[in-house]
Amino acid sequence: QKEVEQNSGPLSVPEGAIASLNCTYSDRGSQSFFWYRQYSGKSPELIMSIYSNGDKEDGRFTAQLNKASQYVSLLIRDSQPSDSATYLCAVNAPTGNQFYFGTGTSLTVIP
Amino acid sequence: GAGVSQSPRYKVAKRGQDVALRCDPISGHVSLFWYQQALGQGPEFLTYFQNEAQLDKSGLPSDRFFAERPEGSVSTLKIQRTQQEDSAVYLCASSPFAPRENTGELFFGEGSRLTVL
């Protein structure tokens, strides 16, 4: 079992819709959770971080964390074509010096 | 420069050649990570430095992989006797914090794409 699991997609949504991306993690000791966006051929960039159970909103993005279910999600409201990218879920390794990444979910927003 | 700089951006090597990939992190960043990203996959951890100390090298796939950061700034990832399975993008990331300080703001470089023929 990988430390971080994501549905690889591809996920397609029409412009203006809500895109929902999901992630599960295996280590209950993890305390920090992140969503990175990676455009094709580019490096990952951080878009959201969340540390406590519940929701965290930043503009059109909302991260949701449920530690009991070991589940993290990212909602993108009013999706735009420029949101088309691969979204990587990352989790800290509580006993080590690293961050585990999922395989990423490919999102396409159709104009 | 303002960001993490990696060189070369592209490297083609014949099987068996040695390669060296350079990372110049953001000035003053304590933490430096190397990740390997195969096509269609997420980044896989290779190694971590806190200043000049290599605190974790558990992700290095074999003893052909070696990394150093002798003065706590620039880092080099060396791959000896390259194999086709080494073909991937090698990402360097830096952070002003140590991983256990509960922040995941990793600043990534553009990566070095290695192709082994």
Summed over residues and divided by their number, the pLDDT of chain A gives a mean of: 93
| Distance N to C terminus of chain B | 33 Å
User: Which pair of chains forms the biggest interface, and how many residues does each contribute?
Assistant: A-B, 28 and 27 residues
What series of H and E elements makes up the topology of chain B? EEEEEEEEEEE
Largest sheet of chain B: 7 strands, mixed
Q: Cα distance, first to last residue of chain A?
A: 37 Å
From the structure provided, what is the oligomeric state, counting identical versus distinct chains? Answer: heterodimer
Q: Which regions of chain B have little confidence, pLDDT < 50, spanning 5+ residues? A: none
Into which percent range does the helicity of residues of chain A fall?
under 10%
**Helix amount of chain B:** under 10%
Return Rg of chain A in Å: 13 Å
Task: Describe the model.
The complex is a heterodimer of chains A (111) and B (117). By secondary structure, chain A is mostly beta strands. Chain A has strands spanning 4-6, 11-14, 19-25, 33-38, 45-50, 54-58, 61-66, 71-76, 85-92, 99-101, 105-110. In chain A, β6 (54-58) and β7 (61-66) form a beta hairpin. Chain A is globular and about 45 Å long. The mean pLDDT of chain B is 93. The radius of gyration of chain B is 13 Å and the shape is globular. Chain B is mainly beta and 117 residues long. Chain B has no helices and 11 strands. Chain B starts with a strand and ends with a strand. Chain A binds chain B through residues 4, 6, 8, 31-34, 42-46, 49, 51, 88, 90, 92-94, 96-104, and chain B through 33, 35, 40-45, 48, 50, 55-56, 58-59, 91, 98-100, 102-106, 108-111.
